[in-house]
Amino acid sequence: MPFDPITGRRIQTITTSIAHEADVVKKPIIVIPLEVVEEVKSPILTQEEITQAIVTDVVETEKEKWTNIQVDSTVLSIFMACPRKYEYVFVRHLKPVVGVSPSIKRGSIVHDALLGYWKERINADDYQKATQICLKIAKEAFEKDSAFSQEEKLETLQTLLEFLKHVQGLNWIPLEAEKYFKIKVFEDTNLKLRIFITGRIDLIVRTPQIPILPIDVKTESERWFHSQMSNQFRMYSLACNTNILGVQRVGFQKTLEAKDKFKLELLPFDQDILDEFKETTLPYWTKQMILAHEDSYFPMNPTNCVHGHFKCQFSDAYNQGICNVSRSVRDQKLARYFVVGDAWDPSNI
After folding, report:
1. CA 122 to chain CA mean position, Å
2. Residue 225 half-sphere exposure, CB side, CA atoms within 13 Å?
3. Using CA atoms, how far apart are residues 170 and 262, in angstroms rounded to an integer?
4. Residue 119 belongs to what domain range?
5. Cα–Cα distances in Å, from 176 out to 172, 209, 240?
6. Per-residue pLDDT of the chain (349 residues; tens, 9 = 90+)
């Protein structure tokens, strides 16, 4: 099994598993109907099939037909929480007319700016130049967006600079930034089913104590609890073949000291938990996803509509609700408050 030449991580490549696989279309779910028996060398797609996000990808591997499912943590988590929301977001590609919230926009700007910082650190290890690049990216992004006040822009830039000073004192050796992965984690020869997990890891570093540490950066305006139950964190650990993951907070709380605002939390994973996830939990929910597509039915889960601070965008917390109204009115409201956006692409997040 090959190793990543930069990080030394063990990476299982797809080409060793599927000898003749063409590039898989990057959709949230790629399904080959299990009943397909006719031998076809290349996929035949209609535009309607593509827009419905049920992509037939027939692969010839030793004259056998396999169902190949590609799933990332966002897709999996939303389907597990509510298949109806999954349908709206990943099958119908619905996005709010009003766009994303300012907090999400600010988080995206910070992530892009830090990506520029870590890339420069990896290439030249120049703290000063990397800091300049980071702040420049953030400033230019804010100049193009009128959603933020001058105070919010200044606060974000000051927080970024404060965070960069904080990480300079850490003994981190950055190895990779925004590392995209696609790895096979499950195969059932009876069902002819393969499952690939995909994602993008914010940062991978080496520390004096930990040779390979994947880090997920979380911007926050209030204190959030990060759990080992996260599908995202489990997938990152599997991708890096490690049992420990770091969650790096970038806080905008004005009352907290730097050591608390920028705290790195280390989440250890028991190997059996990771094995259970890839051998049992992931295959179960992936099969449910296949059935939902085959039946064209994505059941609603009303217990997931509102949880404390979390409120689903299709719940009655917004626009007097989507899922709580009659079916005849529901489509009208979806057309009024949502637009069709681009298909989800885990390699471009």
Report:
1. 23
2. 4
3. 12
4. 113-169
5. 12, 18, 12
6. 444 433 444 444 333 332 333 333 334 444 322 333 333 333 333 334 433 433 334 444 445 788 899 999 999 999 999 999 999 999 999 999 888 788 888 889 999 999 999 999 999 888 899 999 999 999 999 988 877 888 888 999 999 999 999 988 888 999 999 999 999 999 999 989 999 999 999 999 999 899 999 999 998 877 777 888 899 999 999 999 999 999 999 988 888 888 888 999 999 999 999 999 999 999 999 999 999 999 999 999 988 888 767 788 898 888 888 998 999 899 999 999 999 988 877 666 5
The separation between the first and the last C-alpha atoms of the chain, rounded to the nearest angstrom, is 28
Whether 156 maps to a domain, the answer reads yes
Asked whether the whole model's pTM tops 0.90, one would answer no
144 belongs to a structural domain: yes
What is the C-alpha to C-alpha distance for residues 218 and 226, in angstroms, rounded to an integer?
A: 10
Indicate whether 147 belongs to any domain.
yes
184 with 198: CB under 8 angstroms? no
As given in the structure block, the two tokens for residue 39 are: 């031998």
Question: 24 lies in a domain?
Answer: no
Query: Helices H, strands E: what count in the chain?
Result: 11, 12
Look at the chain and report how many structural domains it folds into: 1
Tokens of 97: 């007319």
> How far is it, in rounded angstroms, from Cα 130 to Cα 168?
11
Residues 80 and 73: their CA atoms lie apart, in Å, by: 10
The residues, ordered by sequence, that sit 6+ positions from 293 with a Cβ below 8 Å of its Cβ are: 29, 31, 54, 91
Paired with 96 in beta bridges are: 338
> Look-up: residue for tokens 């591997």?
61
Q: Of 243, 231, 239, 245, which Cα lies nearest the Cα of 282?
A: 231
Residue with tokens 């060398």: 41
